[in-house]
Amino acid sequence: MIILFYSILFYSSILFYSILLSVPTVFMLLAKSVHAQHWYKAERDWSWTGAGLTAVPKTIPKNALKVNLESNQIEVIRQNSFSHLGECKLLILRSNGIHDIQIGAWDGLDRLKTLALDFNEIEVIRQDWFTGLYRLLSLSLTGNKIHTIESGAWNGLVKLTKIYLHQNQLEVENLHFFWGGGIVSRITYTYHLILI
Fold first, then answer.
1. What pTM value is reported for the model?
2. 101 - beta bridge partners?
């Protein structure tokens, strides 16, 4: 009887400790599975989507080539938001509710080639908003509320070849802004009334 009692006690304690040790592992796995919906990091790709971010994180690695901050709540792109990302070539900021871009917001993005600002709340493209993006090849502004493009809006975009503007509120007369500085000869753009 005593042997049976000690055997039960022994096996019960083993079971108890194994459960106790497995609890942190279970919680870690659960936490990782929930977090994985929002955060992904490959070799030099950095993605944090749908996480409710209201500003650009400073924790993005300096050597990131691709940065995806889609479906957050970054309503204003502030000055020097990306100043530490000198190697980034692709930046995705879709579906953030962006309505304003501060002067100097893109400072530091010396190698950026593709910028996606689709499905935000942009109404006016301001003069010199994109200053400093000398290597930019493609700019997507699809699905905003753009009704005005200020003269000089594309200043400094010397290598730009594509602008996507469909699903906005532009009227045909707004297109005269593309002619400034001969930029229309370098741009293939998509427009809600013109498909190329």
1. 0.73
2. 77
Residue 88: which residues within 8 A CB-CB, separation 6 or more?
64, 65, 66, 67, 82, 109, 111, 112
Distance CA 185, CA 100 (A): 28
Total Cβ atoms within 10 A of residue 149: 23
Distance of alpha carbon 133 from alpha carbon 115, whole angstroms: 10
The phi and psi torsions of 24 (rounded to 5 degrees) equal -60, -35
Q: What DSSP designation does 180 have?
A: G
pLDDT digits (tens, 9 = 90+) for 71-127: 999 999 999 999 999 999 999 999 999 999 999 999 999 999 999 999 999 999 998
Second-level CATH architecture of 38-190: Alpha-Beta Horseshoe (3.80)
Residues 6+ apart with CB under 8 A from 181: 154, 155
